[in-house]
């Protein structure tokens, strides 16, 4: 129950004081099947069992997956790139989500009510939102890094690792600051005056407080980040399209230049690779980041849609069908924290190999992963790689219209 609140309007079935669960679950309260008889404001126990099962599996998958990624990075003998640095911190952010959002929610579903002091209530609420902000904004920073690498490659030559550390540090700091209001909004309080039933709920002085709060969370964690992601990927796709167009135009020139080189022993500079423009490695990381973003949107879009619907639609009544939509959207959102590590593994073959080498039971698979990674490298090697290619400091030098020649090294 990430954002439960106490409100005077009849927004739920708990005598006008119920919780909007903006973590992984919005609990169903006005269904009549097998309620908790020990609490006058009971719940649907059958739905709770399903939620507990899904949250348990989600927690296990998120921890195992993200710890595997971190262990593979720790054990790898390769130099980690900027992309791996962002992947590392996104895994850490997902672990924060797993341990401080999914796990507390799981415990909350088991006990039904929050059992702890007021200070623990506030800390839990802060950490729950901290994980959401950190995971989302780390993904945004990863996309921005890909945007710079593809659209402004020269900037990647100027202290790229230092810039990556600054981006990562600012993400954690920003997430910490933006989640601080949780301390002042939430507290341990009675679910209804005189009921002697306590829970960790949010309080708003003004009637519009709940609506403003949910809207702010939706904007800060979903809508604004998605807008930034769409903008960046729009520019990335435009740059890649221009690159492909250039490669098509130069293909015939390169073929004729290689044929001429076979006769004269001299190869035109313009024909060297297509050319130090956008490497396959960069394209692969762009694809990986895009899949991560797509998984995020698919998992969280239904959830935030339901939350906005619940506070902006005055006719929202929390009947059985609407509770089903709330529960399904919340369970789908909880899956996002366990998707990312498996996406990393799929798009980075050597991480699978490095991880397999650390696990005795997986070592027979190491040769298979290493062979696949080697084949991928071989496919990227061409006859032209034996020639002196452009230096890193001149990634687009071969776009000049004046042909230059270089001596053959064969």
UniProtKB/TrEMBL annotation:
<feature type="transmembrane region" description="Helical">
    <location>
        <begin position="213"/>
        <end position="241"/>
    </location>
</feature>
<dbReference type="GO" id="GO:0005886">
    <property type="term" value="C:plasma membrane"/>
</dbReference>
<feature type="transmembrane region" description="Helical">
    <location>
        <begin position="324"/>
        <end position="347"/>
    </location>
</feature>
<keyword id="KW-0325">Glycoprotein</keyword>
<dbReference type="GO" id="GO:0045907">
    <property type="term" value="P:positive regulation of vasoconstriction"/>
</dbReference>
<protein>
    <submittedName>
        <fullName>Arg8-vasotocin receptor-like</fullName>
    </submittedName>
</protein>
<feature type="domain" description="G-protein coupled receptors family 1 profile">
    <location>
        <begin position="65"/>
        <end position="344"/>
    </location>
</feature>
<dbReference type="GO" id="GO:0042277">
    <property type="term" value="F:peptide binding"/>
</dbReference>
<feature type="transmembrane region" description="Helical">
    <location>
        <begin position="290"/>
        <end position="312"/>
    </location>
</feature>
<dbReference type="GO" id="GO:0032870">
    <property type="term" value="P:cellular response to hormone stimulus"/>
</dbReference>
<keyword id="KW-0812">Transmembrane</keyword>
<keyword id="KW-0807">Transducer</keyword>
<dbReference type="GO" id="GO:0001992">
    <property type="term" value="P:regulation of systemic arterial blood pressure by vasopressin"/>
</dbReference>
<dbReference type="InterPro" id="IPR015076">
    <property type="entry name" value="V1R_C"/>
</dbReference>
<keyword id="KW-0297">G-protein coupled receptor</keyword>
<comment type="similarity">
    <text>Belongs to the G-protein coupled receptor 1 family. Vasopressin/oxytocin receptor subfamily.</text>
</comment>
<dbReference type="InterPro" id="IPR017452">
    <property type="entry name" value="GPCR_Rhodpsn_7TM"/>
</dbReference>
<dbReference type="InterPro" id="IPR001224">
    <property type="entry name" value="Vprs_V1A_rcpt"/>
</dbReference>
<keyword id="KW-1003">Cell membrane</keyword>
<feature type="transmembrane region" description="Helical">
    <location>
        <begin position="52"/>
        <end position="73"/>
    </location>
</feature>
<dbReference type="GO" id="GO:0005000">
    <property type="term" value="F:vasopressin receptor activity"/>
</dbReference>
<keyword id="KW-1133">Transmembrane helix</keyword>
<dbReference type="InterPro" id="IPR000276">
    <property type="entry name" value="GPCR_Rhodpsn"/>
</dbReference>
<feature type="transmembrane region" description="Helical">
    <location>
        <begin position="164"/>
        <end position="185"/>
    </location>
</feature>
<dbReference type="Pfam" id="PF00001">
    <property type="entry name" value="7tm_1"/>
</dbReference>
<keyword id="KW-0675">Receptor</keyword>
<feature type="transmembrane region" description="Helical">
    <location>
        <begin position="123"/>
        <end position="144"/>
    </location>
</feature>
<keyword id="KW-0472">Membrane</keyword>
<dbReference type="InterPro" id="IPR001817">
    <property type="entry name" value="Vasoprsn_rcpt"/>
</dbReference>
<keyword id="KW-1015">Disulfide bond</keyword>
């Amino acid at each position: 129950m990430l954002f439960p609140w106490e409100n005077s309007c009849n927004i739920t079935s708990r005598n006008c004081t119920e919780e909007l669960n903006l973590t992984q679950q919005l609990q169903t309260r006005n269904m009549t099947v097998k309620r908790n008889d020990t609490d006058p404001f009971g719940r649907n126990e059958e739905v709770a069992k399903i939620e507990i099962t899904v949250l348990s599996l989600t927690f296990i998958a998120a921890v195992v997956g993200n710890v595997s990624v971190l262990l593979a990075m720790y054990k790898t003998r390769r130099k980690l790139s900027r992309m791996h640095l962002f992947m590392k911190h996104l895994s850490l952010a997902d672990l924060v989500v797993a341990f401080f959002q999914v796990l507390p929610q799981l415990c909350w579903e088991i006990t039904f009510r929050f059992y702890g002091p007021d200070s623990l209530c506030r800390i839990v609420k802060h950490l729950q939102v901290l994980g959401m902000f950190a995971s989302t904004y780390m993904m945004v920073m990863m996309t921005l890094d890909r945007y710079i690498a593809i659209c402004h490659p020269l900037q990647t030559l100027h202290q790229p690792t230092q810039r990556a550390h600054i981006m990562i540090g600012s993400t954690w700091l920003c997430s910490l600051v933006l989640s601080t209001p949780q301390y002042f909004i939430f507290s341990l309080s009675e679910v209804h005056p005189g009921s002697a039933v306590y829970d960790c709920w949010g309080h708003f002085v003004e009637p519009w407080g709940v609506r403003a709060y949910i809207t702010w969370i939706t904007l800060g964690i979903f809508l604004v980040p998605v807008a930034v992601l769409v903008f960046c990927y729009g520019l990335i796709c435009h740059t890649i399209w221009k690159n492909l167009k250039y490669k098509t135009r130069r293909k015939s020139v390169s073929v004729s230049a290689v044929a001429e080189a076979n006769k004269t022993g001299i190869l035109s500079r313009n024909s060297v690779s297509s050319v130090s423009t956008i490497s396959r490695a960069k394209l692969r990381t762009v694809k990986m980041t895009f899949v991560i973003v797509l998984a995020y949107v698919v998992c969280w879009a239904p959830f935030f849609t339901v939350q906005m619907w619940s506070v902006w639609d005055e006719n929202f009544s929390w009947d059985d069908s609407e509770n089903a939509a709330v529960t399904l959207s919340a369970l789908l959102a909880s899956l996002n924290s366990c998707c990312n590590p498996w996406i990393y593994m799929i798009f980075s073959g050597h991480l699978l190999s490095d991880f397999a080498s650390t696990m005795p039971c997986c070592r027979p698979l190491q040769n298979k992963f290493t062979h696949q990674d080697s084949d991928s490298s071989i496919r990227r090697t061409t006859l032209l790689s034996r020639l002196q290619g452009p230096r890193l400091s001149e990634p687009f030098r071969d776009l000049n219209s004046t042909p230059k020649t270089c001596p053959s090294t064969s």
